[in-house]
User: Which sequence fits this backbone?
């Protein structure tokens, strides 16, 4: 039995060796294929494992992984009550305007923490002519973010530099201004490079534990 017949019976197909310039080209192609296969094998063995995708939250959004962000109260967003809902873009004034921030549930007297790292640029009053309610505004030049946290009795000074998660004040009681039954909360407005952003899309979700509350 010839070698070619033996190869065909075993299921192998052989090709006649090319001659001249064709032989050189065929050899180069074969070597390149071998080298390429070896390189691909080396990459698959030594390449770092892909990073895990951010864990999906209950709202369907990916949980933020940025270290310099914090939930201001550690609680969920305010749900629907007599004055509306607390999510970004919720209806206000019978649909004539939209909620410009996100409301995080807070017990009066509870510690409120900085949502971002930054400098305390403003401390002011939440409402004109009502000195009961205050806000603290932070700005981070590095990320282009700034946040204003309303209904906070400030415990930081103007110009102070704070880390994300550091105490900036204590939550205030909103029942006097909203007597029909509002869920106590702090209101967070965030801008990224000057444009309004949804804080809940960036800040961590609720941790489920209440912070320290004044007696």
Assistant:
């Amino acid at each position: 039995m010839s070698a070619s017949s033996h190869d065909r019976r075993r299921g192998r197909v052989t090709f006649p060796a090319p001659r001249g310039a064709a032989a050189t080209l065929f050899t180069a192609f074969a070597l390149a294929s071998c080298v390429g296969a070896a390189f691909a094998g080396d990459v698959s063995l030594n390449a770092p494992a892909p990073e895990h995708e951010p864990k999906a939250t209950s709202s369907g959004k990916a949980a933020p992984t940025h270290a310099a962000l914090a939930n201001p109260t550690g609680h969920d967003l305010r749900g629907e009550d007599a004055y509306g809902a607390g999510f970004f873009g919720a209806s206000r004034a019978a649909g004539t305007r939209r909620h410009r921030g996100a409301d995080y549930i807070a017990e009066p007297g509870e510690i409120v923490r900085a949502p971002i790292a930054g400098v305390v640029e403003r401390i002011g009053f939440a409402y004109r002519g009502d000195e009961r309610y205050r806000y603290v505004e932070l700005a981070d030049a590095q990320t282009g973010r700034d946040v204003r946290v309303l209904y906070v009795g400030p415990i930081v000074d103007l110009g102070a530099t704070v880390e994300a998660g550091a105490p900036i004040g204590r939550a205030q009681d909103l029942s006097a201004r909203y007597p029909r039954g509002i869920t106590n909360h702090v209101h967070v407005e965030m801008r990224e490079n000057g444009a309004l952003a949804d804080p809940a899309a960036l800040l961590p979700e609720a941790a489920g534990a209440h912070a320290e509350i004044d007696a």
